[in-house]
Fold these 2 entries.
Entry 1:
Amino acid sequence: MKKTLVLTAATAAVLAGCATYTPPTKEETMAVIRSSFQDRGIAKVDRLNQTELQKVCSETGNDPPKEVRERLEKQALAAVKFPADGKWLGDHTLGERIAQTGVGLQWSDQPGASAGGNCYACHQLTKAEISYGNIGPSLYNYGKLRGYSDDIKRYTWAKIWNTHAYNACSSMPRFGDAGILTEEQIRNVMALLLDPKSPVNQ
Amino acid sequence: MRATSNRAGRRHLALAAALALATAGAAAQEKDRTIEEIERYRQMLQEGNPAELLVVRGEELWKARRGPKNASLEQCDIGLGPGVVKGAYAQLPRYFADVDQVMDFEARLVHCMVTLQGFERAALVKSPFSGAGQRQTEIESITTYVVEQSRGATIAVPQNHPKEKAAHDRGRQLFYMRAGPYDFACSTCHGVDDQRIRLQDLPNFEKPAPAQRAFATWPAYRVSQGALRTMQWRINDCFRQQRWPEPIFISQGTIDLITFLGVKAAGGKMDSPAIKR
């Protein structure tokens, strides 16, 4: 009697598929994902087409093998567009406004509308703004701590333009590379970080 | 209804005052006090959740004979058998043999409104979420009633049927998928402990406690929007901020993601409709 029961339970398990389950392949899953999204406003379904870097970072838990990581970082750095006129810094008060603004590239945003950098979503910057996130490191006293050399300016520009130049799977958006901020806006954010008079450096 | 919106209005003022007080100073101490104030404000809100009114409307809609077939939803099987509402939401999404697919509550509700009541699917899924200042939709109202009937129930999203497992596995891939102009995945914000956007805490779905807390408290009344928001809305608005295209309401992908989150939240106790900022 007991044996029959065990056998019945086993049969039921097989029927329920426990023993025969095959996980969906990556491609099958991608097909389901694609069929589950639609264009809305400026956010079109082609945004689901992953870049190589997005794909690698997604599939490796943001920790790709060393040689892949180094290649991706090198590619990212090589594509950074530095300011043609060598002018690194704009206006830090305008930079603060960009750091405060979170709009841009959502389906709820107007096409062509100027995007913000939303720096405070993830970083501390000035002492006055207490509503800041912690996904990224604190940037308070950014310039004061690192100095105001051309090397630091060059590094910071590249970091903002395409963060993957220094950390292949960083969570930060590619503000220059992805066309989120204009060169002029990046100059203003640079000033927020690296102008000795900026509230960040007080 | 008016009394409620006044009450909500006063609470908006209270929060504004709390935040204004907090921003007047600038030290780290002030920040802690802000978080304390927001916590106090949240507790204050728990005392009178406007979603209670929606539970009543939802129950009426559930029980009323409506639609071209002049039928009620009382014979709707949401997983525990026709007409069983108590505790059912805590075990969704799940596999339904009659349609041979995994459905979350909102998908199942639409299914029942179509099959039992004769409503047109296209009309139901066209505008499932109420806009600013609009009356809550029928889907939102009924969802509020049904989830309330699971308050205190243990979250147990089933993983028995192969399609339930497949939904979970696809949901996991979607959760970690980076895409779009900002390169964001769900996991960018929801895969690390104690992360915040501005002052908003972000639950880490890789840990049981925050996953349980998050899953247990949706649907929720959002004070900042003056509206009840469902899990499908929550997913929709995350993808908006993720800079992705729009997830189609009750599409397989959204159900997969909710399945993944629900499995992560196993063992938690439903506490919805909750009230949030």
Note: Residues 1-27 of chain B have pLDDT under 50 and may be disordered.
Entry 2:
Amino acid sequence: MRIKLDRTMCDGFGACARHAPEYFSLDDWGYASLEGNGAIPEQDRDAVMRALLDCPVHAIIELSDSPTAAPQDARS
Amino acid sequence: MTTTTALTVAAWPGIQPRLLRHGDEAYAEYRKQGGYHPLDDADHLLGEVDLSGLLGRGGAAFPLAVKLRAVRDNGRRCGGAVVVANGEEGEPASIKDRWLLRHRPHLVLDGLRLAAQIVEAERAHVYVSDSHAADVVETALADLDAATLAGLSVSVVTVAPGYVAGEETAAVRVLNGGPAKPTDKPPRPFEQGVAGMSTLVSNVETLANLPFLQRHGSATFRAHGTSASPGTFLATITGAERPPALYELPHGVAFTDLLSLHGVPTDRVRGVLMGGYFAGLVNRDMLDATLDHESVRRLGSALGCGAIAILTDDCPVAVAASVMAYYDRENAGQCGSCFNGTAAMSAVTEALRDGVATQDDLARLERWSVVLRGRGACATLDGATNLAASLLIQFPQLVARHLQNGCETCHAGAFSAVRPYEVEAVMTA
């Protein structure tokens, strides 16, 4: 499972950080950011799904497998 | 009263400018000098872009060839590609993109057409907020026929100016009918952009380098610059109680040599504000730097879009307070970490300037400058954290003096500007 968090939608309810604190960190004002790259291993799927379904503003979105490739910067 | 002066526009002594010129560019003249030369082999030109090492000039310095290849490949897989020439120069202390569009529209359009052919796009947009630039580009487009543009359809899109409006996802959002505000990633424009297609959003100065590459090749391109920062770049120089200037510089020139060209004695320099506002402050260590990505990065800063404000009489704490207030006002108002974080950091930097900040305030500012990094959908909050972190790291003694309310410069009337070092406030470009 892959997810993203749309921070332009987050309203700081904080339900995500209660359900899956290792994937959602809150700032001093209660606004969330996603920890990691959005890939969720099977054992954490239920907790993250609970966060997704509980978000009042639907800021957590499940991603389909992307058909596009990321550009690789040769310098990094 | 503001005095309006003309912008100084000059190439580095001894170099043949690639981007700057005297007077406005007419179509016939541009064509006569080899412009709009038909492109026979797009893959060969992409190879030359790769060998040239051309880095994006919008601020992020991402290798253009990598971006071109990703857009072309994704476009082939997923229904085509679109190209956007990004001329919405959100940084108030930068003028180079507007200057290029106003005076060398054909150079930019020629680059746009080459980029479109490389990524196999049929549709392109010139994205600007400057109405003068938009008029000039529209007039230039009227000179061109379909054959010159190799069938590319180009439109000019004008938006209201704003710090965040030039961010690449904001450009895509406008072209899809939305507001000029960034979106969270993924997707990035190369994955899914205008009309859902793979989209190249490229700064106009970056594109303006492509006709040179087509004509002269990557080896000649690398005749100026350093191995990791090849070519020339446009630098907007403000501050130092001097009229602003736009210079074309080979990457790697010494900052002190730029100071003498600009007529600023080195002993008067307290520091610089780098990359427009985005890359924060650097102290007098800047006097040992050369103007290329690797040298400025070693100072914990960045060349960014090439805009450098030189601080002489202005107090760096007061400059930071004005720029932080600008971030507080000009952020998109979308991400909670950003609109809260910039407001909080602005309150502390203003208190510091005014000599009323406490040690606790300072500890909070230091923590925010670290933990808020990366917490916005776009890089605005990162710009604000760069500013806070660089103030604390680069000017610790000055910060300590402000904690004791002991800055004589600020007591005598602190630096204050709604748009610090804005070029167009003092000149006509």
Note: Strands of chain A lie at 2-5, 24-26, 32-34, 60-63.
